[in-house]
Every structure is written in C-alpha cells, then in structure tokens.
C-alpha cells in the first residue's frame, strides 16, 4: 500500500460546554490546529502518484474560507468540537472529494493528536 500525507494549518476557537465549569476546555479558547490528511492506494497512477498533491487545494480553500479564525462551535453547529470530532469531520469532507482518503489526524497542541481512520 502506498501512503502520502499533506499537512494544513489554521487557527480557530471552540468551547466544550458539556464539561464541568472548572475544566479549562469548558471556557472559550483557541488553538493553532494542524490537520494531516493521509491518502492511500494499492497502485500508483500513470504519473506515479497516489494522488497529485495539488488535488488537495480544495481542502486548503475549505479550511481558509470556512474554518480559519472562526468559532468552530458555530461553524459545525454543535458544542462537541473536539479534535476527535474534527478528525472525523475532515475525513468525511475529504473522502467525498478524494476517494483515496484513508485517515485524518488533527493536532490542537504540539503534544496531542487525534486520528480518524475507518
């Protein structure tokens, strides 16, 4: 299996209102997110690619226009905007556009990652 990844960055706020009031993530706060999209294929294209990285430009546009410097609770329409939920959100968005999507990882901090891989 061939695998490629591409990384994207954006900044946004969120609030996990279902947590106890004293939990730091229950307060409005923000992150500098990193999204890593993985594409996989058993065979390479006629050009030797799993997929041309340029084909991921639509994801960059989506992130920049829809998520960057926004409040994610408002954008996604719920209050469970965790890294895990974001990984699934990005996976679903990418899979609908690019069938080779095999996993998405999201980082909120330099030491934490959440991954969605069906």
Topology:
Blueprint: E1 2-14, E2 29-41, H1 57-67, H2 72-76, H3 83-97, E3 101-109, E4 112-116
Antiparallel strand pairs: 1-2, 2-3, 3-4
What does the model show?
The chain has a four-stranded antiparallel β-sheet with strand order 1-2-3-4, covered by helices on one side. A hairpin with a 2-residue loop joins β3 (101-109) and β4 (112-116). The chain has helices at 57-67, 72-76, 83-97; strands at 2-14, 29-41, 101-109, 112-116. It is an alpha+beta fold and 118 residues long.
Structural class, judged by helices and strands? alpha+beta
Order of helices and strands: EEHHHEE
What is the average per-residue confidence, as pLDDT, rounded to a whole number? 96
Residue stretches low in confidence (pLDDT < 50, at least 5 long) are: none
User: Using DSSP, what is the number of strands?
Assistant: 4
> What distance lies between the first and last C-alpha atoms, to the nearest angstrom?
16 Å
**How are the strands ordered across the major sheet?**
1-2-3-4
> What characteristic shape results from the CA principal axes?
elongated
The largest β sheet comes out as: 4 strands, antiparallel
Rg over CA atoms, rounded to whole Å, is: 15 Å
Overall helicity? 25-40%
Task: Report the portion of residues in β strands.
Answer: 25-35%
Figure out the total of helices: 3
């Amino acid at each position: 299996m061939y695998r490629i990844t591409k990384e994207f960055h954006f900044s946004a706020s969120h609030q996990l209102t279902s947590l106890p009031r004293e939990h730091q993530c229950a307060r409005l706060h923000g992150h500098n997110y990193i999204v890593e999209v993985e594409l996989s294929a058993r065979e390479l294209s006629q050009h030797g690619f799993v997929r041309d990285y340029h084909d991921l430009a639509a994801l960059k546009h989506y992130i920049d226009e829809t998520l960057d410097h926004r409040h994610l609770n408002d954008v996604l329409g719920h209050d469970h905007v965790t890294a895990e939920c974001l990984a699934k959100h990005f996976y679903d968005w990418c899979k609908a556009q690019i069938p080779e999507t095999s996993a998405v990882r999201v980082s909120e901090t330099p030491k934490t990652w959440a991954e969605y891989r069906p």
